[in-house]
Design a protein that fits this description.
The protein is mainly alpha-helical. The protein is built from eight helices and two strands; from the N terminus they run ααααααββαα. It has one domain (42-165). Helix content is 44%, strand content 7%. The radius of gyration is 18 Å and the shape is globular.
């Protein structure tokens, strides 16, 4: 039997994986990991956030930006910091905003001389999850729980946006 190879996009593989066709699901699993296939897409996240009430951790300007992204079908061109804020809004849900005393999780890149250890919260050889309770830095994007922080990291990684979060200045 002759063997041929095909290229399949992650979006198409997710469609196959979520179908009722076991053969398509098997093909999708040959091309991508289960975690990648089960991951929610940025397109789905934007669509779910559009139309949420303004008090849902979204300003009117952010709603307009989300609608613009959807209208232009411009999901892959979202800047890394904006994407991280979108993911935090989606995962943290209605009205949650980190305050001093609350636990908030974030992921960071290990840098020589700065936060060089991860403990048990290693994401990969360069990235870790940490948390703050007694402080709340306005420049950090916090997640309500560690699971969602990890999922946001995975989405950022799959879209090749991680390095854009920490560029030299």
């Amino acid at each position: 039997m002759e063997t041929r190879y095909v290229t399949v996009s992650l979006e198409k593989a997710r469609e196959w994986y979520n179908s009722n066709n076991s053969s398509l699901k098997e093909i999708a699993l040959q091309a991508f990991d289960k975690e990648e296939l089960e991951q929610v897409s940025i397109k789905e996240i934007v669509n779910q956030l559009i139309g949420k009430p303004i008090g849902y951790n979204l300003t009117e300007t952010q709603q307009i930006q989300l609608e613009s992204i959807k209208r232009r079908n411009d999901y892959n061109r979202i800047s890394a910091p904006k994407l991280l804020r979108i993911l935090a809004t989606y995962f943290n849900g209605e009205f949650w905003k980190k305050k001093e005393g609350d636990v908030g999780y974030f992921f960071y890149k290990k840098e020589p001389g700065f936060m060089t250890t991860c403990g048990n919260n290693i994401l990969d050889k360069q990235w870790c999850i940490s948390s703050h309770t007694s402080v709340c830095y306005p420049t950090l994007v916090y997640f309500k729980n560690q699971k969602d922080c990890r999922e946001a990291y995975n989405i950022m990684k799959s879209l090749n946006k991680l390095d854009a979060l920490y560029t030299d200045f």
